Input
Amino acid sequence: MDRYELRRQDYSLSQDQTELQATYAKFVRTRCPIEVVRAAEPAGFDKNLWEQLCGTGATTMALPESVGGDGATLVDLTLVAEELGRAIAPVPWIDHVCATRLLANLAALGSDAEDAADVVAGRQVVTLDPRPDAAEGARLIAAGSVADHIVVREGDDIVRLTFATRPAKVDNIGRLPMAWIDPAAADGRTVLASGTEALAHYERALDEWRVLTAAALVGLVEETLRIAVEFAKTRYTMGVPISTLQGISHPLANIAIVVQGGRNLVRRAAWFLEYEPGAQPALASAAYVYLAEEAAKAATMAVHVQGGLGVTTEAAASAYLVRARGWPLAAGDPGAAAVRVAELSAQA
Output
């Protein structure tokens, strides 16, 4: 078995990747405590945190060097997504990098060099509609209230929309900067590309969104596990920590299995999407479906471990619960992705 063949089965990190993840783990730990998350809930977005994140190169790393990026792999990006998910960071990083990578593939980053540089650096936020269908009319888009450019699919066309006044944020369970976007009401509308190849690029962007969202949910689940474990170790019943009770310890052990299994699945999906996109086309959707279901279960269990304290608005566990349930819904019904997994598996 040669080294390349081995990497199809081994998803351990290189030293550079380990250092990359450690860097962003430290960043979110120091710059995005739960107080920052809570303060950003009305808007679903912390502009200061976003600017700091962009300053680390988190947006430029996602793009090829030919357009001013750093050429990071999709596996590298999952490491950043995992840390942002761990902190439930109120920034549209996943939406932005998936949209900008799509624009780069379509050779449509900006109308001029300055505009493109602003997009690459994150000074202009770009988002896309992560739903797989080409719905007509207004649609809810996760980062619609903070984006300068919105990329959507309309039939066989990939279209970029701009609005002179950003659409109003819609309240949502995931605390996202979500808004109703009506292409007919856009002040600017540019058809970027059309046809089969353009749609293939868009579908690739959706797969990347699914993989990175799944990675963020891995980080979210691991943090909910930490919150629940720390609580269980310090609460006693009949003279023993509640962590020693099977009704507590066994579900927490199951969450640990979800974290490791989900992480392996995400890295596997990212690796194949990066290097052999046609070999395992169902993996991205499979990772997304698995984490969408398991994240909600894990976050619910973390709340249950804390009892009445867990359901208070002040508890960190409750903040993780609503995002575990709400983030996957940005792409519509996760059940549609499950159907896609079945269809792609049947074709294999």
